[in-house]
Specification:
Elements lengths: L5 H7 L15 E20 L11 H7 L3 E9 L2 E7 L8 H20 L3 E7 L6 E5 L4 H10 L9 H6 L7 E7 L5 H12 L3 E9 L1 H4 L5 E6 L6 E6 L1 H25 L2 E6 L4 H11 L5
Parallel strand pairs: 3-4, 3-6, 6-7, 7-10
Antiparallel strand pairs: 1-2, 4-5, 8-9
Helix pairs in contact: 3-4
Length: 289
């Protein structure tokens, strides 16, 4: 399948992910660091002090002021972007939710590679090998092929449990794409552990139109996609109202937790236009520029 249209691919190269904090990475890149370094972009002057390298003295400034100054330059370093894609069974029903989650992952990953960021992609809760520590546009095709080849069969392991098994070795930006339809306390614990690894976290909750506004009615047999437990229910307006209230409470609890911890939160429908989601909604939140 085609995860991204040619138009979205083209637009992605003109945008980049935004961090709240300056980057402090290990290798050269295109991100502005909070440290001073040796790039070609001038920052400011500072007075020469004993122990500084004399070769860094700006002699033109000395000729004007008879004082020794050193030029300081911005150190441009790479950003580590980790994308966590929920591979649990609940993401596979209906199929459009899984496809939307993969397309979001593909777009943000492609955007990062186009901006010389170093990315890793994990399908959480499955045995599939991750796509790790890749940098540069040369890997864009491999990324899209990797995501297109993910089987989408779903995992019986809970997403929160799988998320906690992944060790973050570098500080950076972590973006989590899931329906987050799991016990909220388990999700909170997973997010806390990730923050302890010095990650700036953003979560994108992807729900289907039927999950956001179910239109079922009559007597139905419902099967839990995770546990396979069956329940026979009679769908009435009261049942739909109870469901809506429980979903809102679950989402509100997750969003409140994220706000308290400085974690970005965004909910979307799997039927939403991908271009609008990335370049309008995420841009409005300051995630993309």
């Amino acid at each position: 399948m085609t995860l991204l249209s040619p138009r979205i691919l083209q637009r992605s190269t003109k945008h980049s992910l935004v961090l709240r904090k300056s980057v402090r990475g290990m290798h050269k890149g295109e991100r502005r660091s909070s440290k001073q370094g040796t790039s070609l972009e001038f920052s400011d002057f500072r007075t020469y002090t004993l122990g500084d390298d004399p070769r860094l003295i700006d002699w033109n400034a000395f000729a004007r002021t008879q004082k020794h100054y050193i030029k300081r330059y911005l150190d441009e370093q790479e950003l580590f972007v980790s994308l966590f894609l929920d591979g649990s069974k609940s993401m596979m029903v209906p199929q459009g939710k899984w496809e939307m989650a993969r397309s979001i992952t593909a777009c943000l990953g492609y955007m990062s590679l186009a901006n010389d960021d170093r990315i890793s992609v994990y399908q959480v809760g499955t045995g599939d090998a991750p796509f790790t520590y890749k940098k540069g546009r040369a890997y864009a095709g491999r990324l899209l092929n990797y995501l297109a080849d993910l089987n989408g069969e779903g995992s019986s392991t809970s997403f929160a449990t799988g998320l906690q098994t992944i060790q973050q070795k570098r500080n950076g930006l972590s973006i989590i794409i899931s329906d987050f339809l799991e016990p909220i306390e388990e999700l909170k614990e997973a997010l806390k552990r990730m923050q302890a690894s010095r990650q700036e976290i953003r979560i994108i909750q992807v729900l289907s139109p039927d999950e956001l506004n179910p239109a079922y009615h009559g007597d139905l047999k419902l099967i839990d996609s995770e546990s396979r437990q069956q329940s026979e229910v009679s769908i009435s307006k009261r049942v739909l109202l109870d469901y809506s209230e429980r979903l809102k409470a679950h989402t509100a609890g997750l969003e409140e937790f994220c706000q308290g911890r400085g974690i970005g939160f965004l909910q979307c429908s799997s039927a939403q236009d991908l271009e609008e989601l990335i370049f309008s909604k995420m841009a409005a939140k300051g995630w993309v520029m």
